[in-house]
Amino acid sequence: MSTNPKTEPTSNAVKDPDDWVTGDEPMTGAQASYLKTLSEEAHEDMEGDLTKADASKKIDELQEKTGRGQ
């Protein structure tokens, strides 16, 4: 049985980036900006040619490393 997005609006909010329909598209400007910030805080070089899915994974990784997003 599927969930009703009107009664459970966040049920689909957390989805594995590998399952994203648009995951192979280039990362968004917002992702690039946030990755730049996180990369600087983590003292890492920023990768500039990531897909949306890969950028999301890298953001998660850097958030954990920097303590952001907790």
Judged by helices, strands and strand pairing, the structural class is: mainly alpha
Q: DSSP helix count?
A: 2
The largest β sheet comes out as: none
Shape call: globular
> What is the averaged pLDDT score?
85
Could you tell me how far the N terminus lies from the C terminus, measured between alpha carbons in angstroms? 32 Å
* Low-confidence regions: none
The SSE string, one letter per element, is HH
Helix content: 40-55%
Number of strands: 0
Taken as a percent bin, the fraction of beta residues is under 5%
CA-atom Rg in angstroms? 14 Å
Structural summary, described in words:
By secondary structure, the protein is mainly alpha-helical. The chain has helices at 29-41, 52-66. The termini are far apart. It is globular. The mean pLDDT is 85. It is built from 2 helices and no strands.
Brief synopsis:
By secondary structure, the protein is an all-alpha fold.
Question: How are the secondary structure elements laid out?
Answer:
Blueprint: H1 29-41, H2 52-66
Helix pairs in contact: 1-2
Fill in the keyword field for this structure.
single chain, 70 residues, mainly alpha, 2 helices, globular
